[in-house]
């Protein structure tokens, strides 16, 4: 499929997704959301892609939802756009493969929510984060009120959402919103380094670890550990478990095959 607002390519088992509306600071309109939905469904089904990197063209990661479009919507249309955005973020969060956000600039509103839907966030030192929706008379609508407190805690999430202030990459790292901050010119290389590392691991292990983490965080500890046991068993009966343990004993790199 040819995309209007997204650049997509695959290299060395890594899928690169770049939101490409630089003149609008990569704002998320309904077309962009539809294209993100399509590309991540493709990534999930692709045997070639083992890991994905998401970034933005120009000086923004994604500077928010498209307010020009939103301002023209009635209540029903506004609800539909919110549900569309939530569905896209849920898709990204729960596909079987790891998704790395390479946050190159402004990640505001829907952009911050997009980054939070990814599994790992690596930020350029130039990155800025925020949930400014209360300045517009609305609230975060693509999962921000739910994912932000899970990442940084309830009090900090309220501080950021109520105040609607931007924070820089180092502050985002301090509060746990991002996992790493790097010099701007090293951002993609750092994301690639981690993606290539992940690609060397057993795909079924990555898949089930992601599923166990995402499911268990919403359960009590006892239920989460029980879910982990079932996920563990599904890896233990795989060919890759046999290969991984055999390779360890034989002191050689593992040759994983399972998808």
- CATH class assignment of the largest domain: Alpha Beta
Number of strands: 10
Number of helices: 11
What does the main sheet amount to?
Answer: 6 strands, mixed
Mean pLDDT: 95
Rg result = 19 Å
Topology as H/E string? EEHEEHHEEHEEHHEHEHHHH
Envelope shape: globular
CATH topology of the largest domain: 2-enoyl-CoA Hydratase, Chain A, domain 1
Q: Write out the strand line-up for the largest beta sheet, numbering strands in chain order.
A: 1-2-3-5-7-10
Oligomer: single chain
Question: What can be said about this structure in brief?
Answer:
With 259 residues, the chain is of the alpha/beta class.
What does it look like?
It is a single chain. The chain is α/β, with parallel strands linked by helices and 259 residues long. The protein has two domains: 6-199, 2-enoyl-CoA Hydratase, Chain A, domain 1 (Alpha-Beta Complex); 203-249, Lyase 2-enoyl-coa Hydratase, Chain  A, domain 2, CATH 1.10.12.10. Helices cover 49% and strands 16% of the residues. The chain is built from eleven helices and ten strands. It has helices at residues 30-45, 67-70, 75-94, 110-117, 144-152, 154-163, 169-175, 187-199, 203-216, 221-236, 239-249; strands at 6-11, 14-19, 51-56, 60-62, 99-103, 106-108, 120-124, 128-130, 167-168, 180-182. The protein has a six-stranded mixed beta sheet, with helices on both faces. The chain has a four-stranded mixed beta sheet with strand order 4-6-8-9. The radius of gyration is 19 Å and the shape is globular. The model has no long low-confidence stretch (mean pLDDT 95).
């Amino acid at each position: 499929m040819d995309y209007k607002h997204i650049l997509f390519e695959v290299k060395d088992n890594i899928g690169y997704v770049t939101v490409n509306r630089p003149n609008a600071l990569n704002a998320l309109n309904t077309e962009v959301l539809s294209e993100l939905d399509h590309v991540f469904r493709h990534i999930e089904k692709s045997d070639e892609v083992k890991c994905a990197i998401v970034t933005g063209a120009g000086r923004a990661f994604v500077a928010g939802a498209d307010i020009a479009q939103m301002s023209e919507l009635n209540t029903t249309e506004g609800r539909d756009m919110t549900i569309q955005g939530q569905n896209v973020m849920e898709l990204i969060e729960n596909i079987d493969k790891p998704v790395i956000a390479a946050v190159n600039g402004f990640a505001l509103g829907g952009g911050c929510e997009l980054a939070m839907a990814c599994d790992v966030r690596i930020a350029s030192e130039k990155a800025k984060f925020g949930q400014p929706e209360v300045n517009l008379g609305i609230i975060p609508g693509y999962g921000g009120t739910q994912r932000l407190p899970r990442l940084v805690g309830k009090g900090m999430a309220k501080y950021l959402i109520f105040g609607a202030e931007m924070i820089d990459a180092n502050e985002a790292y301090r509060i746990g919103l991002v996992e790493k901050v790097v010099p701007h010119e090293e951002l993609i290389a750092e994301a690639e380094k981690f993606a290539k590392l992940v690609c060397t691991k057993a795909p079924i292990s990555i898949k089930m670890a992601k599923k166990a983490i995402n499911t268990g965080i919403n359960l009590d500890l006892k239920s989460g550990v029980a879910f982990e046991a079932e996920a563990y068993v599904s890896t233990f009966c795989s060919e890759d478990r046999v290969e991984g343990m055999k390779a360890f004993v034989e002191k050689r790199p593992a040759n994983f095959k399972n998808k």
